[in-house]
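Troubleshooting: if your tokenizer reports a length mismatch, compare your output against this known-good record of 47 residues.
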Amino acid sequence: MPAHVRSRRSVLYMPGSNARAIEKGRTLAADGLILDLDATVLMPRRG
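Known-good structure output:
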């Protein structure tokens, strides 16, 4: 494997609508963050 290629061992999936979780994810030791963009579309509230 070439020296410039880095294997990914861990990824963290999280909702894209939660800014606090995204900031927390940036501090974790995961090799990558994957944002679930479907979670950014909020369902209309029934009221």
